[in-house]
Amino acid sequence: MHNIVYYRELVSAGVSTRVIRQAQACCLRRLCSGVYTVLARCSNSRHRRFAGFIDDPAWIDLHVQKTPAQLRDDFSYQEQLRRLRILSYSRYRSDDVVWGVSAALIHGIPLFDVAPGPISVIHPTSSSRSNEITRHVRVIDEADRCVYSHLALTTPVRTALDLVRELGQQAGFAAMESVLRASLIGIEEEPDLRFGYPPGFQRLARERAVESWYPAVERLKNGRASARRMVDSFNPMSESIAESFCSFNLHALKINGFDQQVSIRDSNGFVARVDFLHEATRTIIEVDGIGKYLIEGRAAMNKESDRHNRLLALGYTVIRMRFKDLLHLNTFSTKLFAQAPTLRKFAGASR
């Protein structure tokens, strides 16, 4: 799929190196050494042989519907290219295990602001570095490995734990919550949860932590205490990386009493399911912002305004956190305490 073709296949089909190089400005994209993907059915007669390697018409349609500039700014598309590169790389060694950011891309773990780089693998005896791949000498327990397609890679749980050291605690915590949530309700098509979660959802999450997460933490060589605290705190209710960042900040401030995904009603019925609620201070935190409503139009914005006013009428303080407000704890705490100063007496409390 995705019209993957290797250099040796192109040469066997009679395509010269010069034509391959020229086509990369037209209908062909290089993923990594000796690996390409066909992007279009090209009208250039010298490129007609590329059409024989098209096995994914949807991939062609995507490149017809969007301009190169749009694709360049499309985060999910760029992640897909990085994922294809990892899957199609042809020079893995027999004991290589894909890990870290590279394993996260394969597992579909959400990442934020991670620059492209070499494929990351671990190997029991060999270390090396090139523009294509970086190997680290490391031995990993068999229980922390899995297989995807033809690749050996770290399990989603181990990958998330590794990201704590590789990307920092906030990003690692978001990865952990994403993996936990996906293990409970799936990652491709989430059920309709607008009006609440199934009974026992949190209990099932803690059971999963005991079964899968704590044993994986104990197999870590370093950082076990920190990872254990994060497993103690993570929550499958976070529905986005932004909510996970917000949850991490609340834990870092040690603010006791916030619940996630709480349904609120008034005399007219259901009002909203809010991201974070601190009932003791009647404080609501919403992290989605208004950007998503620009796509849906004025009707959606009016609906959100009505929802907001009903919450205010019930006596709640509603704080809207933009994504950039979540990235640094000082920015987050300044905005939080400025709009809800009564939360200060809950900060630093033991949980």
Describe the structure.
This protein has helices at about 5-10, 15-25, 55-65, 70, 75-90, 100-105, 155-165, 170-185, 200-220, 225-235, 240-250, 290-295, 300-315, 325, 330-340; strands spanning about 5, 30, 35-40, 95-100, 120-125, 130, 135, 145-150, 150-155, 260-265, 270-280, 285, 315-320. The protein has about 350 residues and is of the alpha+beta class. The chain has three domains: about 5-65, no CATH class; about 90-220, no CATH class; about 240-345, VSR Endonuclease (Endonuclease, Chain A, 3-Layer(aba) Sandwich), CATH 3.40.960. A four-stranded mixed β-sheet has the order 4-5-7-6. Strands 10-11-12-13 form a four-stranded mixed β-sheet. Helix 8 crosses helix 9 (about 200-220) and helix 9 (about 200-220) runs antiparallel to helix 10 (about 225-235). The longest helix is centred in the middle third of the chain and has 18 residues, at about 200-220. It is globular and about 75 Å long. About 30% of the residues are buried. The model is unreliable at about 290-300 (pLDDT under 50).
